[in-house]
Amino acid sequence: MKTLLSFVAITSSVVLMSFGISSNFTTPDQGKWVAPASAKELKNPHSGAESVANGKSIYTTRCVVCHGATGMGDGPAGKSLNPPAADHGSAAVQSQTDGELFWKISEGRGAMVGWKLILSENDRWDLVNYIRTLKR
Q1: Quick one: which of 42, 43, 63, 113 has the fewest CB in 10 Å?
Q2: Which positions ≥6 away from 91 have C-beta within 8 Å?
Q3: Spatial CB neighbours of 12, under 8 Å, sequence gap ≥ 6
Q4: How many whole angstroms separate alpha carbon 109 and alpha carbon 118?
Q5: Measured between alpha carbons, how far is 82 from 29 in angstroms, rounded to an integer?
Q6: Residue-level pLDDT at 136
Q7: Is the bond leading into 83 cis (omega within 30 degrees of zero)?
Q8: Per-residue pLDDT tens for 66-89?
Q9: What domains, with CATH codes, occur in the chain?
Q10: What one-character DSSP code corresponds to residue 80?
Q11: How many other C-beta atoms can be found within 10 angstroms of the C-beta atom of residue 41?
Q12: Percent of the chain topping pLDDT 90
């Protein structure tokens, strides 16, 4: 697992640099990240163990580098982000609707990649379901 995380961190750094984004990525004060009202109303069409397992697989390969293995925002690349990577187990994240999380995963902001052109809609809903398991 440690080798995989190192590989993901290095690969992510190379990708970020290729887009001209340094590992010390900073953004101007963007204020609180609020999804539009329409996103709050989106209903998650996925549920169950298979959805969570798929979400975990995607999270492990795509999200761990910034959000960390347990979703605390402490991944190797996430440590240098400003604003920092979100703690997916926190009350602030867990209190959002599935639709809000889906919208944020889809659209991205700043250093957060917008995944809508990379991951299928089903995969993004599965990520939401996995993120729900990180609640502390």
Answers
A1: 43
A2: none
A3: 65, 66, 77
A4: 15
A5: 9
A6: 83
A7: yes
A8: 999 999 999 999 888 888 899 999
A9: 2-22+35-132 (1.10.760.10)
A10: G
A11: 10
A12: 69
